[in-house]
Fold each of these.
Amino acid sequence: MNRNTVVWVVVFGLGAAGLAWRAAGTGMGSQYVRAIEVHAASKTGQQFTWTRYDDAFPKDRGQPDVALSTPRTLGVWVAALMTLGAFSFLFGDNPLFKLTQAIVIGTSAGFAVCVGFWSTVVPMLMGRLHPEFVRSWAAPGMPPDQQTEWIALVPLALCLMLLWRLAPWGGWISRWPLAFFIGLTAGLRLVTFFKADFVDQVANTILPLAVMADGRFDPWATLKNLAVLAAVLATLAYFLFSVEHAGAMGRAARLGICVLMITFGASFSLTVMGRISMLAARLQFLFDDWLWLIDPLNRRTGL
């Protein structure tokens, strides 16, 4: 083994030994639940009883109705190791990061397929073609007056044509439904983006230059509207390439550049703050829920 491999093996070995020692001594990462018996009655008067498991604090372990939840504990450990696997990319590409990446991508793809099947295929395709069959095994809450809609055969045919790409011949058949879906999506998105990115922005720019509030002149609101108007005109002046950027037009274009830089900076900083919030959440999960190193609510008193 080369030097880097030896270093990684030593680091992972020491880390695993430290985690095992701390887990054996403190029970870190353990999740406890409290069993609550629930009683309910249906509209016909039939009684039902089941047990609900709510989260319990580790300091309450040992109580008669509190027990260790093996699935939830295993979930915390898996989530923590996956987080560390993602963070390991900071030290370079490594097998642990590749394994974590493959698991996350595969799990996300499988989850998306399951959600799409039960939220789209079953109710919107199968439920329209054969409502009685779907109601009997998948969707008992489907309206009893649901009738067969033969128009659903059109999306079924398009889906079958799309899957034709997997066949050894006739792959060109899948291009027709693909073109239809792309064109339809582009047309719908065009209307949405045209309203959000053009119509609404133009409407928000049409502001009164002199603001009157309760019969009085409002200087601050007027100044804000003038600043918005000046920023919009300066930005448009920068993108007006049919006129030479010299003199007053040049000064307006330079002001437009400043407005653009402020806008891009604010947008980038908002993105960075969002990522920092995600990082803080993962670190809090690691140090609190998994390692039990911090406990602001004093929930684990008595460990």
Amino acid sequence: MILYDIIIIGGGPIGLACALEAESAGLSYLIIEKGTIVNSLYNYPLYMTFFSTAEKLEIADVPFISTAQKPGRREALEYYQGIARHRNINIHLYENVIGVIKKEHFDIKTTKAEYGARNVIIATGFYDIPNEMKMPGEHLSKVKHYYTEPYLYVGQKIVVIGSSNSAVDAALETYRKGAEVTMIIRSPDISKSVKYWVKPDIENRIKEGSIDAYFNAELLEISEYSVIFKEENQEIRTIPNDFVLAMTGYLPDFDFLKSCGIILEGNCLKPVYNDATMETNVPGLYLAGVVCGGKDTHLWFIENSRIHARKIIDNICTLLRS
């Protein structure tokens, strides 16, 4: 069995950045990715536009050329997958990591094989596990935790849960394709984090009555043809419904992190790691990217977690020299 210097779990932008840093340092590495390259980006809404400009999404000093000020999903896929192809990144796709055990080195078991590594980097993101609402009817087929495009919802009565970027994009796009859209929002207003060029659009559509919105409201139950929710004044309402788009966010795989021996702290389940090196409480086991934030998935983005790759590789190189 080959003993790699580093195995990287997750082939997203930050996982790729870690691989390229390892290569530059002369370290052997392997990325193990359960889907395609930058799998989370592939599953984003088809017409999504990034908040960040192209240069803030760059990795390994490879220029991200975009004709738009802010690139979209397709441009990002071309950029990151293009890097993987042209730099011949050592990556195994459609292979899921089952367990990571620390002995003299790390034993990594996947759905296809077993590997050994002196160090492991977990860069798995958070897009695979929906943050469930825990209510009757949530698992009906009409309830969608992922939104890709509006054409499925033409002429349908849609309830959108949430007021973040994903919820606002879904509400606007389905409305413009002929859906009857109602937003049910726990907070008193549209999230301040919504893209600044989109926020006035959704607020104006709500103000003019094109999209119904209930603020300080709570969804209580979903049935086959309706939903029940509580308004701000505590009145219980039932409205007809064909689909529920539950844009309630996503969570890291906390069970996997715990199975690796990583300590999770507080209500946010934030993993324990050293800010300077990204090393967890398990020696030789590192975290990179948005997985570092626990439930606070808005803490880390591509643009501010790219630095994790260099921190990790610098620390591993320092330890190898000592």
Amino acid sequence: MAVARTSPLVVLAVLLAPILAPALAMAEDGLALLQRIAQGSRQLTYSGTFVYRSGGKVDTSRIAHSLADGLEVERIEALDGSPREVLRAGTEVKCFFPEEKLLIIENRSSQRGFPALLPAGLGSLPDHYTIRGGGRGRVAGLNSQAVLLEPRDDLRYGHKFWMDDASGLLLKANLISERGETLESFAFTQVKIGGSLESEALKPHFDGERVRVQQVRATEVKPDDMGWTFRTLLPGFRKVAAMKRQTAPGNPESLHVVFSDGLASISVFIEPGGAGGEADAASTVGPVNVYRRQIGEFRLVVMGEVPALAVKRIGDGVERRRR
């Protein structure tokens, strides 16, 4: 009787199954946690106080957030340092600086802040991060589940998120360097989730005041109209926004292009100014790496909470489009 030969690939798959199955399950569990976090930050009503830490810098802020008729409304007030207030309704963001009596209004469709750090759709995050559970803990008196995102390359940083067990709200977030150091941290110290907000929680303090209004004008730009090409695109990063921005009437317009992998973002700014022959420069401001280049009569600035290699690689690939 003939004996059927088993394919070596089948044998390998059988041998690896006990190893791969738990790894795949951890990835799926981690992704499910991320999906809960992404939904919770947008759909829940919450208010509380959170602390931001980076190096020796510590900032404390008060936040209130709600979702009504499909529109997110949020108010953030700085509790230390220079007084400032941010009111967001959908994509419109108003920043008020009481000492200067200045109100800046702009649209920020592609920018997110704590606790809404994750996009609504997680897309290809598992392709570029290893996602797994990170144990349990307590944050702001609430039981939480941690999830780790470890980068698969040297073009992004790692993250550790703590999620409230009951609601899915993100309670704490750490940005982790390639050396395992915490570059920055957001964490609630006190939070109320659900129920109704106090009547004044979302009301701006600048209502009724005489303020100087600065409207930041942003116009979407089609790829063919940018006048610039990006020869070096990073794996997993895609262009999510391209706009021409003008901070005030009479000021020159700048091109602002945003690339994101769904979690990390890189902003590219191109504006007239500077002098030809200036040396390229790199710098770091907290967790943000910045790369500057002079391209003829234009100044290029690339910045993001990513390793220095990533901003330099994108910056070196920018060039004027030939007509």
